[in-house]
Write a structure and sequence with these properties.
By secondary structure, the chain is of the alpha+beta class. 47% of the residues lie in helices and 16% in strands. Helix 10 packs across helix 11 (308-324), helix 10 (265-306) packs across helix 12 (332-341) and helix 13 runs parallel beside helix 18 (457-480). It is globular and about 90 Å long. One of its GO terms (cellular component) is plasma membrane. Residues 528-632 form the PTS EIIA type-1 domain. GO terms for molecular function: kinase activity; protein-N(PI)-phosphohistidine-sugar phosphotransferase activity; protein-phosphocysteine-trehalose phosphotransferase system transporter activity.
């Protein structure tokens, strides 16, 4: 089914090195997350310059194309065209691209793959639980006895209780285990304590760490004489145990797949996988992972307890930096683990003001700048930031301007420090931005477990903190921000007065020569939206009369695509030129193309770059119309060319002012 993002999807696929360069594709709230065989084949600068793409980040073993709010629609369009593996991993631990990933890269990649699919529902159900807590506060405890409360609470809390099942599904997808086998393991964890309460009703053993409770466990029943150690809190809503259990089961399943005859694999492999994995998960993996969960919670409490102001400042100040590199995934599971083990989170929650100070900075720039383009970028960035999606604000506005970004890091740190000083906690996962405010309302369980008397304390306090740091950020950015546009405006005025005089940017009277002989047509006639819409740059197209492409100016080959169907040149006149031979010719995989130079080669105007067999390409059903674009046209006052005429290679084609 056609999508308005099909053109953008084609640009993305082509410039990540083509379908054959993609190991897998996933997405989070704002980014397409590619695993590529060879990141050097990706044309990062073209992607960054494409409308609809905020920026490109290479981090955590992933090639991340930041889209913004439309990421889901763009992901669907990209996958519809490319039919990629959308598991988020190639399953080979990084060996698919010939490179070994570091431990940090593997960890971030794993956490991203496991948690991304369920974040939306975690946010949605968390908001419901928070609003129900507010309803009980306003309407009284009697509201808890109504059918309305019960059904809504089942929606909100049901997902959290069965969180191990949800995580089992996404973890199975990540670790290449049969999805239903993984879910069966999680079901066994949850079913055992409901159906056989004796397992968890033994003598309670309390272990302490950092002078606090580390883990409470019960030992009563045995399995083949081995004691079953059961966390007193059970496995409902737990995070870490099921992830480890699924990882182990995936290893077991691969072993059985190798040794079991094909004729009985269908039912024997899952049976043997469960028979081995579930008992070991109950006896070893579950308890160890639960202790690890308790240790993480205890460590966060210890760090926070040592100095909550410093802890809050560091989390708040560094959060946006972590987001830029996609490294915030390392802390997201910590927050969910704290909800599970402690009933609240004060540690990671200190990041809450970060999105709001970004929006305050963008608002100040929006109201002060006279740059029309910057204003047009600021409005959607502000709206996205209010909803907690800050990538458009960071990549499009504050980070390029540098000083506003530094200011927001400082004020977010101040906000986090104040939250630490006042002990502000969130009690459930929720949405981002304004949609997370209900998460600061204690759930009924938290109220009972923690003895909370002032139900509105955290919500009231965090609202005042957010307001204060937003005002602080707005004022600082307002008084420190300055447009740098007057100089460019003067240069533009001078250029308009003397358009054909030698400019500092021009190498040869500001011209780009025709790289191929043929008939010149407007880009609007090109049968590809990516070119005809102008999203890739300004220029014209040539219907070739011969199969030879020559250098249109002196410069350096910035990109010679391995398939030979396209070449990028950075001219000595500072123009970045893209010559794309034909439409969709990347699908020929280099057939009928013969590149004569390599990436990085220095060329002179008129040097032969590529030869191609026009007739064979046409016979294969492809249009040979060749766009010639200046992809960094925004760096110049004007890029124009005359159409409707015949040219020979070397004739003047485009004028650059």
């Amino acid at each position: 089914m056609a999508s308005k993002y099909d053109g953008l999807a084609r640009i993305i696929i082509q410039n990540v090195g083509g379908k054959g360069n993609v190991i897998s594709l996933g997405h989070c709230i704002t980014r397409l997350r590619f695993r590529l065989k060879d990141e050097s084949k990706a044309n990062t600068e073209i992607l960054k310059a494409t409308d609809g793409i905020v920026t490109v980040i290479q981090s955590g073993g992933q090639y991340q194309v930041v889209i913004g709010n439309q990421v889901t629609e763009v992901f669907d369009a990209v996958n519809e065209i490319g039919h990629f593996n959308v598991s988020g991993d190639d399953g080979d631990g990084g060996e698919g691209d010939g490179k070994k990933k570091g431990i940090g890269d593997k960890l971030i990649d794993t956490l991203s793959g496991v948690f991304t699919p369920i974040l939306a529902l975690l946010g949605a159900t968390g908001i419901i639980k928070g609003l129900l807590g507010l309803a009980v506060f306003l309407l009284g405890n009697e509201f808890k006895d109504t059918g309305t409360y019960m059904i809504l609470y089942a929606i909100g809390d049901g997902f959290f209780y069965f969180l191990p099942v949800m995580l089992a599904y996404s973890a199975s997808q990540k670790f290449k285990l049969n999805h239903f086998t993984g879910m069966a393991i999680a079901a066994a964890f949850l079913y055992a304590e409901v159906k056989f309460p004796a397992i968890a009703s033994g003598e309670t053993v309390v272990t302490t760490l950092f002078a606090g409770t580390f883990m409470e466990t019960a030992i009563h029943e045995t399995f083949l004489g081995i004691p079953i150690i059961w966390p007193s809190a059970g496995y409902g809503s737990s995070v870490i145990p099921i992830v480890f259990a699924v990882w182990f089961a995936a290893k077991i399943e691969k072993l059985w797949m190798k040794v079991i005859p094909d004729v009985i694999k269908l039912f024997i492999v899952p049976m043997l996988t469960l028979v081995v994995a579930v008992p070991i998960s109950f006896l070893v993996i579950g308890p160890v992972a639960s202790w690890l969960s308790g240790g993480i919670g205890a460590l966060c409490s210890a760090v926070y307890g040592f100095n909550p102001i410093i802890a809050g400042f560091l989390v708040g100040a560094l959060w946006q930096v972590l987001v830029i590199f996609g490294l915030h995934w390392g802390l997201v599971p910590v927050m969910y683990n704290n909800y599970s083990t402690l009933g609240y989170d004060t540690f990671v929650t200190a990041n809450f003001t970060a999105s709001f100070v970004q929006t305050a900075a963008v608002l100040a720039i929006l109201l002060k700048t006279k740059d029309k383009k910057l204003k047009s970028l600021s409005v959607p960035a502000f709206l996205s930031g209010i909803c907690g999606v800050t990538e458009p604000a960071i990549y499009g506005i504050t980070l390029p301007k540098k000083k506003p970004f530094y200011i927001t890091c400082l004020t977010a740190g101040i906000g986090g420090a104040i939250m630490g000083a006042f002990g502000v906690a969130s009690y459930v996962s929720g949405g981002l931005g304004v949609f997370k405010f209900p998460c600061f309302i204690p759930t009924t369980e938290a109220i009972e477990k923690l003895g909370i008397t002032d139900v509105m304390y955290d919500l009231r306090t965090v609202a005042l903190i957010v307001l204060a740091v937003m005002v602080l950020t707005f004022v600082i950015v307002w008084f420190t921000y300055k447009d740098n546009e007057p100089v460019k405006a003067d240069a533009k005025a001078d250029a308009e007065k003397k358009p054909m005089e030698k400019q500092e940017i021009a190498g040869e009277e500001g011209t780009v020569a025709a790289p191929v002989s043929g008939h010149v047509v407007p880009l609007s006639e090109v049968k590809d939206e990516a070119f005809s819409s102008g999203v890739l740059g300004k220029g014209v197209a040539i219907v070739p009369a011969e199969g030879k492409v020559y250098a249109p100016c002196d410069g350096e080959i910035s990109t010679m695509f391995p398939t030979g169907h396209a070449v990028g040149i950075t001219g000595d006149n500072r123009a970045e030129i893209l010559i794309h031979i034909g439409m969709d010719t990347v699908k020929l995989d280099g057939k009928y193309f013969s590149p004569k130079v390599e990436t990085g080669a220095k060329v002179k105007k008129g040097d032969l770059l590529v030869e191609f067999d026009m007739d064979k390409i046409k016979e294969a059903g492809y249009d040979v119309t060749t766009p010639v674009l200046v992809t960094n046209a925004d760096d110049f006052v004007d890029v124009s060319g005359e159409t409707g005429k015949d040219v020979k290679a070397g004739d003047a084609l485009l004028s650059i002012i």
